[in-house]
Amino acid sequence: MIRPARAEDLAAIVDVCAQSLIHDVPDASRFPELLGESPYSGPSLRLVAEDDHGVVGVSLAALRNEGEGPAVGYVDLLAVAPRVQRKGAGRSLLAASEEVLTQAGAVEVRLGGNAPCYVWPGIDPAYSPAVELATSAGYQECGDAFNMAVNLTPATVDTTPDEERLREAGISVRALQLSDQPSFSSWVAEHWNRDWAWEASRALRINGAACYVATREAGFVGFAAGGCARPGWFGPMGTVPAEQKRGIGSVLLRRCLTDDLSAGRTSSTIAWVGPADFYKRTVGATVDRVFKMYRKSL
Asked: Which of 27, 32, 230, 248 is nearest to 147 (CA)?
């Protein structure tokens, strides 16, 4: 049976994720909580499958309706307990999510890749049952995305000389403070977009996440956040055009990676990479996981 998820289902949903998402241990058990904050989701878009023994699957969807364009639905997470995989639970959950999204006005559904609140940029082909389900349900590949990995060492993340150079140029680097939030969010939304503003500001309320800002006099000129999507995952980041080529992004990136190193991590993930050359040159990042994006017209 498929039904809307209830608050009391959370422990069972977490258990399903921990059992089934074997390529994302130990983060998988945190996915429901992380995605539960999505500004584009809601109770009617969160479904579970259950049998006589309890919850055996979960689908967490979202709906985006921005501007004058048609609404687009997303299935941010679909997980089925191993004991019932390949028995129709995943297909039923996906179909039910499509129906709910259609009723909400979506004309298209995409699998994963729903910034700013996401746990993957798309489907990792290592989850072969998910790929098979997507293709058999009529989804088409519409692109790919990749993460990069950084091996952390004190030398890799040291910012001392570069921060001194920035200070001499009138630029300070510090952690984002709660008192910064309103003006910071407005600034990021103005220069980039509201999604990045929401995601970076999440650092102020997630344990272990951080956001660093570069300022000149009273104004922000750059930012970088880490741990906002998943622990040990870096992004987003940005520097205003007038201040680029000064090494601000490099310092902000390494500040975030320093936190990962201090937390005992030996590597960090640059999530959903845009400028790959920058990360390779700055911290020796290499391509790690590749994800496939899928879409389907309703």
From this structure: 230
